[in-house]
Amino acid sequence: MKEKKIDWIITLVPLAIIVALCILFFALPEQSNAILSQVRFFFGDTFGIYYLIIGLGIFLISIFIAGSKYGDIVLGEPDEKPKYSFFSWGCMMFTCGLAADILFYSFSEWIMYATNPHIKELGSIQEWAGVFPLFHWSFIPWAFYLVLAVAFGFMLHVRKRNRQKYSEACRPVLGKHTDGFAGRIIDLLAVFALLAGTATTFSVATPLMATIIGDVFHISLSRTAINIIILIITCIVYTYSLLHGFKGISILAKVCIYFFFGLLAIVLLFGGETRYILETGLSSLGTMVQNFIGLSTYTDPLRKTNFPQDWTIYYWAYWMVWCVAAPFFIGNISRGRTIRQTILGGYGFGVGSTLISFIILGNYSMGKQMSGAADFIAQYNKSGDLYELIVTILKTLPCAPLIMIIVLVTMIAFYATSFDSIALTVSCYSYRKLGEDEQPHKLIQLMWCILLILLPIALLFAESSMSNLQSVSIVAAFPIGIVIVLITISFMKDAKKYMGELKNKQK
Question: The whole model's pTM is what?
């Protein structure tokens, strides 16, 4: 390890902040959650339109970039071939982000919408409850990933920059200020946002794994205790695969995809709701596409239901904080692909896999509800326990214990792959300079693996509600939104300059 290369400010300041937050959550859980609620309301309610405008804008820019002359730019040398096959690339891209959350929410998100007054305003549960999961997890969220992925891929593989940081992607606009105070602030905000997104992800879906373990293996430990055990096991899994580099991540990603699509096939073919799943899925997809702009710009100005504040704004913020790690990873593995291939391939594999998951798993449980075979809405209204609800849904499937074990293993593998990409990316932030083919020292990677797990454990210990977990992302995403816009402008400026350089060479 070359200590002179390590950026101790970027490494130690986030460490100190996370340790301080962990102490607060452990020592003052109720007060901490109350403050989170207040801060979340301020950002989500007062500045909600800010998140919505950035989300729609980034999506439209992604379409423009893919269809323009910039789409022809190869992320690497002009004649370079892709480093990974489309399947391997797609597997790593899909699993590096929020794949575990996608699996978690696919089963039950429609139920949370079904009980919301906004659905009654629009029409029936059948017409609209399956539409919003498709909207909230598809084109705009993946646009955040893909626009930044091509910006980072361009920075790394075309411009050959040796600082793998958020601030470096802003250099075409910031110039010399990139190396000064402005650049430091951007990088500190990026690392903190990444830690916040990580904490939210682990804290939201880990209790489902704990519930499955308790149900299948009849373990009587408290859910919090099981959560912490799972976090430690998962940490060991992803640390092991991370320390084996991209090869380990690639293998784990493929295993995830096989389990994932195997689960979807079982539910579709043997769950008894095949016709309903396909027909409702197609109808919901059509409704989402027809109303896309309206859904993207709905603000509920009279605050009749607070639906966009509670859901759409939260989701855009959630994906924005994940933009610190996942796009860097996607940009890294996209070497040799054109910008057009990266964006359209990302929409095809990433959005396609996401939509299939929500259509099959969500419409399976909705089909049971609508046919009267089960009443999941009543159970959720009575208990408010989403984790027990999903276990109840799983128990309606044939060979339920086996299905639950498959879900458990798939989620652990998804988490491991996601955190591989996060730990690898954030480890790069600990270095002042890092060449394209250089990797962070394993001790630095190990340190971040441990650090990434602390805040989720603290949030789980404090028994934060779903709303307070969402607050962490909404707050962290506010400054990151500005940086995302800055990176996009910087990329467009630098790509235009690069196209001009290529044109001059050809003369």
Answer: 0.88
